[in-house]
Write a structure and sequence with these properties.
single chain, mainly alpha, Serine Threonine Protein Phosphatase 5, Tetratricopeptide repeat, 81% helix, 0% strand
């Protein structure tokens, strides 16, 4: 009986456990079903949001594109920024770059294009846009790099020609020849390519190869280019008169700024500065801010001693490069030749401040200060001359003269003794010592000084003055 009761209890326990397990299984199943339902709902919601983002992005992209094509770039920029907030696609980023280029915000456009290229490094269209933008920014080496990346992906005649032209601009004529030769292998009669390659050969002093290319140019439409090439060829051989003839022929056919520049360079080499300045001015009508040509023009005017025109030209240069040492020096010199002493000081002080190394200016600056009655600065700059051993004798003499006028007789005597010992106007140095001694009532010393002047000087006026002082203040 006890055994039966125990068995019933055990069966009951097993039943309870089984029921518990079944209940847990049911709960887990319910949770799984509920979880699956929730997850599916979340996924559906996410997909819905993504579709909405895509739709909104696409909508604003279309609006941006339409505004861009209409030329309303500010509006287009607003639309594309909104599109990008909804979805970041390479096409959207690229369009933003195009809009920024249209707005001439080139640095931002560059950053945008580069970001788009990072996501899609083999996008040929982006590589072309980046190359063109770098050309606009005059970063030719970067433009070459992008064109090279494009050419690694596919052969592109326009890209190779552009790269050759960029190599020429960077004066890497060997690489330019390589690209032009590649193109000529496929189009051997292309006279435009022959002209460019011949020009490179001339720059490389490969004159025989240049001549061979020039002989292949027959089209009369290229007559101006051929004359220019032959002018370049003659210039390279230092045959400047012949070069002038060819450049003149080319100019009769085509009024090209570079031809004026090249002919001007020939005239400059022949020291025909009037003709050179005329040609340089003709070039500057096209590009008034060309620093190299403005420098050449200023040099022409200086050679012609036309200091007014030189000053005007150098003033334009100074605006373009306010800290350039050569310009500061030259404009100071030209100001001095125009007797504009204040300007001389202004420009040469800036030259000195910017680290100019020509210390010869100290003596002229001291003289300018002296002429302007600025004795303190004159003394300062004569002191610099003495320290740097620049016209030392004259510096001592001139500083001594200032001290004499200031009635600083001891200092004057010390300086005149130095100038005398350096053989700088010995008779005047001795005479001025005599004047200083006399003002100090040191008549024995003044007598000795005036007697020596009478003995060594060849200047009769100075001798007579010394004799006059001796007649009045002679002390044995």
């Amino acid at each position: 009986m006890k055994q039966k009761t125990k068995t019933k209890k055990n069966n009951k326990k097993r039943f309870i456990k089984k029921e518990k397990r079944n209940a847990i299984a049911i709960i887990i199943l319910i949770l799984f079903i509920v979880g699956s339902t929730v997850s599916y709902g979340v996924i559906q919601e996410n997909q819905k949001q993504q579709r909405e983002q895509q739709e909104q992005g696409s909508k604003y992209y279309d609006l941006a594109l339409a505004a861009y094509e209409e030329g309303n770039f500010a509006k287009a920029l607003d639309y594309i920024d909104t599109a990008l907030r909804h979805q970041k696609q390479t096409a959207y980023i690229e369009l933003k770059g195009d809009i920024l280029v249209a707005l001439e915000d080139y640095e931002k456009a560059l950053s945008i294009y580069q970001r788009a290229l990072k996501d899609n490094p083999e996008n040929k269209n982006l590589l072309i846009k980046l190359a063109n933008l770098q050309i606009t920014l005059e970063d030719y080496e970067s433009a070459i790099a992008y064109l090279s990346s494009l050419l690694e992906l596919e052969e592109n005649k326009d890209a190779r020609l552009s790269r050759a032209e960029l190599y020429m601009m960077c004066e890497d004529y060997k690489k330019a020849v390589d690209d032009l030769s590649y193109l000529l292998a496929k189009s051997p009669d292309d006279e435009n390519l022959l002209i460019k390659r011949a020009s490179c050969y001339i720059q490389l002093n490969e004159l025989a190869l240049a001549n061979a290319d020039m002989k292949k140019i027959n089209d009369s439409s290229n007559a101006a280019s051929l004359d220019e090439l032959q002018g370049d060829y003659a210039y390279q051989q230092n045959d400047f008169n012949t070069a002038i003839g060819f450049y003149t022929n080319a100019l009769a056919i085509q009024q090209k700024a570079d031809l004026y520049l090249k002919r001007g360079d020939c005239y400059f080499q022949l020291k025909k500065y009037n003709e050179a300045s005329t040609d340089y001015n003709a070039f500057l009508h096209t590009d008034a801010n060309d620093i190299e040509v403005l420098t050449k023009l200023a040099n022409c005017y200086m050679q012609l001693k036309n200091y007014d025109h030189a000053y005007t030209t150098l003033a334009n240069l100074h605006k373009l490069q306010p800290k350039d040492l050569d310009t500061l020096y030259q404009i100071g010199y030209v100001s001095y030749m125009r007797k504009d002493l204040k300007n001389t000081i202004t420009y040469w002080k800036q030259y000195e401040k910017e680290g100019g190394s020509d210390k010869e200016i100290y003596f002229i600056m001291a003289s300018c200060y002296n002429s302007l009655k600025d004795s303190n600065n004159a003394i300062k700059y004569y002191g610099k001359c003495i320290d740097k051993n620049i016209h030392k004798g004259s510096a001592y003499f001139n500083r001594g003269s200032i001290y004499l006028n200031q009635k600083k007789y001891e200092k004057a005597i010390a300086d005149f003794k130095k100038s005398y010992s350096l053989n700088e106007q010995k008779d005047y140095s001795r005479y001025n010592q005599g004047i200083a001694y006399m003002n100090l009532n040191q008549f024995r010393e003044s007598t000795a000084a005036f007697e020596e002047v009478v003995e060594i000087s060849k200047n009769q006026d100075l001798i007579n003055l010394s004799k006059d002082w001796l007649s009045r203040y002679y002390v044995k």
